Amino acid sequence: MAAGERAAEPLAELSHYVVARPIYSEAGFQDENERRPPLPPTLRERAQAACSCSKKRAFQITKSFLPILEWLPGYRVKEWLVSDIISGVSTGLVATLQGLAYALLASVPVGYGLYSAFFPILTYFFLGTSRHISVGPFPVVSLMVGSVVLSMAPDENFIIDSSNATGANSTGTVVDTESRDAQRVLIASTLTFLVGILQVIFGVLQIGFIVRYLADPLVGGFTTAAAFQVFVSQLKIVLNVSTKNYNGVLSIIYTLIETFERIGTTNIADLIAGLLTIFICMVVKEINDRFKHKIPIPIPIEVIVTIVATGISYAADLENKYNAGIVKSIPRGFLPPEPPDVSLFSQMIAASFSIAIVAYAIAVSVGKVYATKYGYAIDGNQEFIAFGISNIFSGAFSCFVATTALSRTAVQESTGGKTQVAGIISAGIVLIAIVALGKLLEPLQKSVLAAVVIANLKGMFMQVFDVPRLWRQNKVDAMIWVFTCVASIILGLDLGLLAGLLFGLLTVVLRVQFPSWGGFGNIPGTDIYKKVKDYKNIVEPEGVKILRFSSPIFYANIDGLKSSLKSTVGFDAVKVYNKRLKALRKIQKLIKKGKLKATKNGIISEPGITNEAFETDEEPEDNEDLQVPTKEVEIQVDWNSELPVKVNIPKVPIHSLILDFGAVTFLDIVAVRSIKTIIREFERIDVRVYFASYQDNLISQLERSAFFDDIVRKDIFFLTVHDAVLYIRNQMTCSDSQDPIFEKISLMQESKEPIEFTETTRTDDELDVQEEAMRRLAS
């Protein structure tokens, strides 16, 4: 038992600590510890650091631009090669089918989706910093590309007289699909080229941080809205219903309405094929998810369904017998590179900016998940450069914008992919499809490809269930999610993303403009200070109020600081000062009338004289000169007691105010001036203002703003709130027995003209006038 007690003694000692040190103000702490002001490097030193070069630094720069030099020399052939081959083959099969399917979203012929699944991988293999993402088309980005393509090349621009069409015997109008598709491919590749240029510029300018403004709730709401847009755009393909190509605000609503208006023209063969594909894909994907620990390689259900559907379509001749919509033609081999149409840049610059940011944000978000899982780092700026060069390169080969697909990346990682060697092998599988297998996929129904797209939207639709969790955790984040989702559905993806981004920034501004604040008190026997309303055992120091303002202070929330001050101390310092001036004016007038007598013990009424001092405030002033004694008297006014004049003066029960600036990160010039005014307003009513727990950069900022002078000095700044409280207690103990809220006033009673007093406002010039008036009355 004794041994147990001895063992517990050190633990008891470790559970407490006692610190003995001086009470530190800012001035005293700087003097004692010899503060060294930071010396910024000179221009010459910066130039030397930027321009100096060595063999080691040159190699580091080269490796940062070509990350392959970082990981390829350490590639473990025996351990990783087999896994990368298996992963590459699996991912390549999925990429082939998704490339065909996502081309429908980009509004280009399906064969160009194969190019988009092949070319971007070649450059990312050398330039990318993620070892696991699968580069290629993504439904959200493809849909954003498609919206630009449809707005710039709608069907209405390619209507021709059917009598001029080859093999047409009837009269009327038809769409020149060959010219339309060629123009749309040119627009998509030009947009891809421009997106790549913007991404390279962003990477060179080191502004990869821009993706930080796309918060997770914003991205969740945006991608869910995009999933809904993708679903509606593919629904008409599953039904094989022709509609107009709407674009802009409410376009998705118009498309949905027209689709249901024409649902009577649904092709049954396409509908059955689409529904079966969706059902089979979702069931097998669910099996893959539930038994992923038992199944070494996920079942490539998209590939299986596509092969089966192609065989059925070819054997049953669905196009001729049931008028089913099929792929028809897939280019075999590669097209020669073509330059972009620079004249189109001005029409697509706004859309290309949003596409560049969204594509980058999706890729980096997915890449960071796997980088964290496997213990390596993602370079955001290098990713901008890698995707930019990939899009520039692929744009020359008639591709549309590339990023990464969540499902494809999950396949690459879950099947054992270790590096981008798996990616280059998947590109080889796509290459085989381009060169040799394209012809075999021509009988495939478009509804099957659309159904594959819809089946892959499940993960994005499931994000809807994040909203209740977000609402419980943070209501503002939930509002950002919902607002971005609704705005993206109504306004379109580009304007919806911008609206969501602005709404998110607005919530930040509002949270800074209306921050949390509160009066703090002391936990007895400690140096801990907590909000008075939150704890029962909190004790406020006598005559001291402590206010903590949890936000940077600037022009937008300075009024919030002032209102929080009034709520904490319980009075308005300016109104108190004005009321005191009014009371002094009435006292002077009544003394001259002889209705009050000023003594050293205070102000008393003459016996037997009706005291008219309790006249209403609205009574007009009497400027009649009266004979009064001509000797000087010194009087004291206790502003917290009942006065012989009817002026309602708020009580001031405190003598000190401490502003806890522990959460204040910066002050602008408006805040500096306003804080100095606040100090002067409280000083005039005998309330001293102190500052505590500030950050060092605030002192430097105040020094640059000429905040300190003979009145406002550094000795009112303390390192902690407890330092300030102890200093105030010492000051009160050492002060004279006279109550500091008493004000000595010397009146020369021979003066016949009343001293003028004016109501005050908050400007510095008028504050000086008020102080001058008080000095004329005060001894």
UniProtKB/TrEMBL annotation:
- Report the membrane topology from the UniProt record: Multi-pass membrane protein
Sequence ranges assigned to domain STAS in this UniProt record: 534-728
Q: Which InterPro entries match?
A: S04_transporter_CS, SLC26A/SulP_dom, SLC26A/SulP_fam, STAS_dom, STAS_dom_sf
* Residues annotated as transmembrane: 110-127, 134-153, 185-211, 268-285, 297-316, 344-363, 384-406, 421-441, 448-465, 480-510
NCBIfam families associated with the record: sulP
Q: Give the UniProt entry's GO cellular component terms.
A: membrane
Q: What subcellular compartments does it reside in?
A: Membrane
Q: What is this protein called?
A: Solute carrier family 26 member 4
The answer to whether keyword Cell wall biogenesis/degradation applies is: no
